[in-house]
Amino acid sequence: MGQNFVIAEKFNASDSSYKILIHLEDGTQVKTGDVICDIETSKSTFEIICEYPGFIYFNPEMRSISSAKTGDVIAIIDDLDGTLEAQNLFNTQANLKVKERPKNFTKKAFDFCVENNIDLINFADHELVTLDLVSGGTVETRSNEITSFKFEDQDNRIIILGAGGHGIELLDIINKTKVFDFVGFVDPSGETEYYGHKILGNDDDLFELRTQGIKYAAIAAGWLNINLTKKLIENVLKAGFILPNLVHPTAYIFPTARLMGGVQVFANSVVGANAEIGFASVVQNLSLVSHDSKIGRGVFIAPGAKIAGNVKVGDYAIIGMNASVYLRVEIESERIVLNNESVF
Fold this sequence. Notes:
Blueprint: E1 3-7, E2 17-22, E3 28-30, E4 35-40, E5 45-49, E6 54-58, H1 60-65, E7 67-69, E8 73-78, H2 86-89, E9 100-101, H3 107-115, H4 131-135, E10 152-153, E11 157-161, H5 165-177, E12 181-186, E13 193-194, E14 197-198, H6 206-211, E15 216-219, H7 226-238, E16 246-247, E17 252-253, E18 258-259, E19 264-265, E20 270-271, E21 276-277, E22 282-283, E23 288-289, E24 294-295, E25 300-301, E26 306-307, E27 312-313, E28 318-319, E29 324-325, E30 330-331, E31 336-337, E32 342-343
Parallel strand pairs: 9-10, 11-12, 11-15, 16-19, 17-20, 18-21, 19-22, 20-23, 21-24, 22-25, 23-26, 24-27, 25-28, 26-29, 27-30, 28-31, 29-32
Antiparallel strand pairs: 1-8, 2-4, 2-7, 3-6, 4-5, 6-8, 13-14
């Protein structure tokens, strides 16, 4: 029976625990790309996207307390059976079958917990979990060999598709938030470096990069070509990458706003109360998305654009620099609003 685990990762630099909103019943059949649950951090709300097809079972503790800590198992996705009992899956061992060691655990401490059936959740609040801590100081040395499972370090590496100005600005967000480890650009230029940073290949190399264990990607297409943007999003998802939300520390996201995954919010921008930013959309520098507005998938909001309240913007639309969209206006999919244009 094959099983995959949904882990509460380090969703932003300042939080180690998160509110979790579960909408699916245990045993629900899910496919790659489905929304599993919502996560609320101190900065934003966003969706966790399914990476594996199968039948999902949520950790009963997540359901009872509606919160998760970094390193927790949120759910198990079983690839064969939709009739299992979640409580039977989530005994202590379920928390220890995870193939990724949490960053705050040393390898010896993690192996000791697995071998001795010790729940990792007991140490989620510690900055560094050592062998001495988990063993109570009673064990000096233990074998590092665990034959039942293969464990690997938690991998927060990320690539950026597009070696250009957009990509450099994304890299600034990545460096400032310190959640992900940037390893290089992917770009069709044929060059090997961009401003001193590696270019790892082109779009044809995405599957190979994913097999190297790199899980995360960000798209820096510039959004001048709508068809190119669609293709890049499709290619990166087909290769199995996760597109995380990337939010500059100077941006302000209202607590009730929702970022739907793969969203980029740049410096000094504001996303208002109850606003929703669709999957893989971009809110560029000094932009405003006001209260209750709904932005579709793959939308590009250029620097200085202002979107009033209760506006709806269709998928893959482009809102130009310093453009203004008035209250309750609807912008159709793939429309380009020109720089400085006002839409009534």
